[in-house]
Amino acid sequence: MATVERLYVDSSVTQALYVPGPVSLVVSRWRRGIGGAIPLTRFGYAELTNAVAQAQHRGILDADGTQAAFESLVRDLADGHLRMHDLLWRRALDRTAELSRAHTITLGTRTLDVLHVASALELGARTLVTYDTRQAALALAVGLKTLAP
């Protein structure tokens, strides 16, 4: 199993820790098994925050559930279960453009998925943890391992 320090965990996975869904139990078990702090970029944090808010908009969470999810997210950051990593965003965005030119024509990846893969590379990750198939295909194309818990 990959060590948490070498993982980049996409919001398709992290949101399952805060928003109930079909993979929440599997992701929670996987999370407990890896230990350590899950790396999170500010972009990933923004996506995760938006996923919680969208869950209320879609009726998955009520107002109390949304508040509890936000509090849990803040607590996980404070307690070291999630660890914020800063990127040099100019480099990450330049790498996103390079990856897009090289791979999107054949893989059909979306900009934000390419940005996640570029972020993983910039952080020195070896494994991308994701449920997104196009994102996983790009990760494999650039030499990352992939994992879908």
Explain what this protein looks like in three dimensions:
- The structure is a single chain.
- Strand 4 (127-129), helix 7 and strand 5 form a beta-alpha-beta unit.
- The chain has 149 residues and is mainly alpha-helical.
- The chain has 7 helices and 5 strands, in the order βααβααβααβαβ.
- It has helices at residues 11-14, 24-34, 42-57, 63-78, 89-107, 111-122, 133-141, and strands at residues 7-9, 38-41, 82-85, 127-129, 145-147.
- The strands form 2 sheets. It has a 3-stranded parallel β-sheet. It has a two-stranded parallel ribbon with strand order 2-3.
- The N and C termini lie close together (11 Å).
- The protein is globular.
- The model has no long low-confidence stretch (mean pLDDT 94).
Q: Which short descriptors sum up this protein?
A:
149 residues; mainly alpha; three-stranded parallel sheet; two-stranded parallel ribbon; 5 strands; globular
